[in-house]
Amino acid sequence: MVAILSEPRAQMRAMRIDDLDAVAAIETAAYEFPWTLGIFSDCLRAGYECWVLQQGEEILGYGILSVAAGEAHLLNACVTPAHQGHGHGRHLVKRMIELARWHRVQRIFLEVRPSNLAAIALYPTLGFNEIAVRPNYYPAKHGREDAIVMAMELLPPES
Hints:
The chain is α+β, with helices and mostly antiparallel strands. It has one domain: Gcn5-related N-acetyltransferase (GNAT) (Aminopeptidase, 3-Layer(aba) Sandwich). 28% of the residues lie in helices and 38% in strands. The chain has helices at 20-30, 37-45, 88-102, 117-125, and strands at 11-14, 49-55, 58-68, 71-79, 107-112, 129-140, 143-153. Strands 1-2-3-4-5-7-6 form a seven-stranded mixed sheet, with helices on both faces. Strand 6 and strand 7 form a beta hairpin. The longest helix is centred in the middle third of the chain and has 15 residues, at 88-102.
């Protein structure tokens, strides 16, 4: 008999201070204009829902969700480039949606770059719809890039 060793399944857990260097490294690898370590630290300190997707000892991605006034905002969701395309982004965003439901929010918002084709393809499959465009929202190599604003209504469970 041959034993087949498989990698442990990726699991979501709350982000900790000692995760910040790994999270910032993923952000820098994934984005041309990354968040700083200080921004991630501020999100933790502010009490936002900050989660990491971990497989074994490796952090594969993270999500940051702010919740206030019956709404949630998915501020950042990212999977390290080496692990993109394997369903980890879907897993991560689904967890952020579950957290929003737990907080009993009515809707979730997010912004996404039009150039982020993978995210634009993913979000509608999870229930997000485009609702607006914010002109010149993001810094870009040659000026600014718009943001597509998307939202998802979280209807109460049917009785």
